[in-house]
Amino acid sequence: MTSTDLDMRKLRYFVAVAEELNFGRAAARLHIAQPVLSRQIRSLERELGVKLLNRDTRGTTLTAAGSRLLEDARFLLTEVQALRQRLSRSEAPAIVVTVGVLPGLLATAAARAFEAVDPARRVVIVPVNWSEQAEVIRRGDAQVVYARSPFDLSGLATAPLLEEPRDVVLPADDPLAARRSVSLADLASRRLLQDPASVPEWYAVAGPALRRQAVQSSVSGVEQKLEMVAARAGFAVLPRSTVNSYRRPDLRVLPADDLAPSQVVLAWDGTVADAARDEFIAAALACAGQTIDPAAHA
Questions:
Q1: What sequence ranges are listed for the domain HTH lysR-type (predicted)?
Q2: Domains of the chain
Q3: Fewest CB within 10 angstroms: 8, 87, 126, 158, which?
C-alpha cells in the first residue's frame, strides 16, 4: 500500500459498487457516469495496492480484501458523517426559550418535545408566583409563562391549556374542617392570606376591614401561605394540583361549592416576533394533558 491519503469520495464509490455488485446500478445510485465510476475504482485499487473487485463476464464479485474494506468503509463513512454533524452543531448558536412556570404546573413534556427537534434547542424553566406571572413577560425575563387565571392580561397573548378545581386550605382544627365542603359565605368572615385579586369571589362578599387587610398583608409564596394557614392566621385558595403537592397533617383541604375552576393558560407578548417561542408554544399545546401531574389529583 502506498502512503497516499484515503479518499473518502472514492471510498463511497467503492461501497456503492460493493453493495450493488453492478457498476451500472452503482453509477445510477451515485448519479455519475459508469466510465467515471470504473476509473475511480481502479484508481482506488492502485492507491491501496490491492485488488478489491473481480470483474468478468459473469459479473462483479468482491475479493477477500474487498470484503474486508467494505466492512471498514461503512464504519468510516458513518464516522465521517457523524463528525460533520457534531461540528455543524457546535457551530450553531443555541436556541434558548425561557419559560416561567407556576407551582403545581409542569413544562417538562413540552420542553422535551421542543428540544428533541434540534440539539441546539434548550428550554430554561424558571419558577414564578401568581403575582409576577404577567410581569416576567412584560419585563422580558421569560418568553412564555404557564399562567393561572385570574390575572391582568393587558398586552399579552394567551392560549388555553386546561382547567382544574380550586380548593380552600384551612387549619386542621378550624370548625369548618369537619365539613365536606365550604362556601364563600362560610369564608366571608375569615382572613384571606393572598392577593385578593386571585380570589375575586371572596373579595365580593368579605367585609371592608378584611378586604383591606388582605390587600395590605397578602403572601405570595405557597410555602409561606401554608405556614400562616397552619398558624391559624387565615385561609388560602389554591389550585388542586398545587395543594396536593404540599400535603401537611396540620392543614385541611376542602372543595369550595361556589369557586370557579382555575384556568391554566400559556401567556406571552404577542407584539414580539419570536419563532422559537412560537414553536415551544406549539409543543406545549400538544402536551397540554401533561401540564398537571395526574398523581397530584389522586
A1: 6-63
A2: 8-89 (1.10.10.10), 95-163+262-290 (3.40.190.10), 166-255 (3.40.190.10)
A3: 87
